[in-house]
Amino acid sequence: MIGADVIFEPIPGAWSAVNTKTEDLRERVLELTAGRGVDAVFDTVGGALFEPALRSLARGGRQVAVSSAGEPRVSFNLIEFYHNFSRLLGVDSYGLTSQQIAEIEGELLRGFETGDLKPPPIEVVPFEKAVDAYSRVAARQTKTKQVLSFD
């Protein structure tokens, strides 16, 4: 799993994790894959990790960009990109219909049922503390999803 400022514990079903604060993403991925690279990157970070993730792809690999934390503009070596037959896909969930989202949820359901996928920890926050919750998220001082309660 790839993360910019967060140290990820390996998750069930994953055979390895890369801490991008202490390890070079591309070097570690190549080490873990005997020099091959990965077939796909699901990039939920973007920004500074976009190019290292792209350079971690195996020949013909795909990178799916769904977000970009920080700077939305990125650069990469176009020659390396096309020599590797890499593919870059952008996915904007805001552009999906409710039916398309339901289909994706249906595909993910099995992973949650088997325990291979786990929802993030959730913290219910009273509405009166919404500003504090937002500030903690913006400052990356929490690892939980903040859910506002209006009760």
How would you describe this protein?
The strands form 2 sheets. A 3-stranded parallel β-sheet has the order 1-2-3. It has a two-stranded parallel sheet with strand order 4-5. The protein has helices at residues 25-32, 50-54, 78-83, 98-114, 130-138; strands at residues 38-43, 57-65, 87-90, 122-126, 145-149. The protein is of the alpha/beta class and 151 residues long. The chain is built from 5 helices and 5 strands. It has 2 domains: 1-119, NAD(P)-binding Rossmann-like Domain (Rossmann fold, 3-Layer(aba) Sandwich), CATH 3.40.50.720; 120-151, no CATH class.
Fold blueprint:
Blueprint: H1 25-32, E1 38-43, H2 50-54, E2 57-65, H3 78-83, E3 87-90, H4 98-114, E4 122-126, H5 130-138, E5 145-149
Please, how many domains? Answer: 2
Structural class: alpha/beta
Averaged pLDDT, please?
84
Helix content: 25-40%
| DSSP E strands, number | 5
Radius of gyration using CA atoms only? 18 Å
Biggest β-sheet: strands ordered side by side in the sheet: 1-2-3
Biggest sheet, in brief? 3 strands, parallel
The SSE order reads HEHEHEHEHE
Looking at the structure, the CATH topology of the largest domain is Rossmann fold
Number of helices: 5
CATH class of the largest domain, please? Alpha Beta
* Beta content: 15-25%
CATH architecture of the largest domain: 3-Layer(aba) Sandwich
The poorly predicted ranges are: 1-11
What is the terminal-to-terminal distance? Answer: 36 Å
What is the 3D shape? globular
CATH homologous superfamily descriptor of the largest domain: NAD(P)-binding Rossmann-like Domain
